[in-house]
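Lab notebook, design round three. We kept the backbone fixed and only want residue identities now. Task for the bench partner: fill in a sequence for the structure below.
Input structure tokens:
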């Protein structure tokens, strides 16, 4: 069983990366009637820049979801090129969507950047996902969001039963067979160890 813990933002906890290196350029093909979404987390101190070009006109939007409610931050009728910049006022999960409602095939090339709003900022947040390793249940792996790029891993003394992220997003609480460990998200160091026997029984 894989345990997945949502999304976390780190200030270079595992590897500091220059802001100008967090840029993705990708392309995809949309058949007639198809659509494509690319989603990622953006924080209030970040700026989302997205540029694309298409071989055929496509509908394009950037939106967020709040349960069943969809909020559109950008929406364009059929176009072959667009450039968007967003500065969110709160942490949110943004999705860019392209729709090909034409009769032919459209090839889309896009470049996506997330960078600090402060031009003097040296580093940006890296959004990551925590998972328990399928092949080694004693290990919690840290992956870059929306990819299989392994950034780091935490090795525990026994199999991980469960884990959770603190509200401040700086600690992992890990439940093992005989104890609970508090681990620093920044460097993986052990902050505290609590024996299961120390918990009150009811």
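Proposed sequence:
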């Amino acid at each position: 069983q894989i345990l997945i813990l949502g999304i976390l933002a780190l200030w270079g906890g595992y590897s500091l990366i220059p802001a100008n290196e967090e840029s993705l350029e990708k392309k995809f093909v949309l058949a007639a009637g198809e659509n494509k979404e690319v989603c990622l987390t953006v924080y209030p101190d970040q700026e989302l820049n997205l540029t694309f070009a298409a071989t055929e006109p496509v509908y394009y939007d950037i939106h967020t979801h709040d349960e069943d409610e969809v909020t559109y931050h950008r929406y364009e009728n059929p176009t072959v090129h667009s450039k968007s910049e967003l500065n969110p006022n709160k942490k949110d999960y943004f999705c860019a969507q392209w729709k090909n409602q034409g009769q032919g095939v459209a090839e889309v090339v896009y470049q996506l950047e997330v960078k600090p709003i402060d031009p003097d900022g040296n580093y940006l947040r890296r959004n990551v996902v925590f998972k328990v390793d399928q092949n080694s249940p004693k290990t919690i792996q840290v992956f870059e969001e929306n990819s299989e790029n392994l950034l780091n891993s935490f090795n525990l003394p026994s199999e991980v039963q469960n884990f959770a992220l603190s509200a401040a997003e700086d600690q992992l609480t890990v439940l093992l067979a005989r104890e609970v460990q508090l681990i620093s998200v920044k460097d993986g160091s052990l902050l505290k160890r609590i024996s299961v026997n120390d918990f009150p029984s009811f």
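Keep this in mind before ordering anything: Confidence is low (pLDDT under 50) at residues 1-23.
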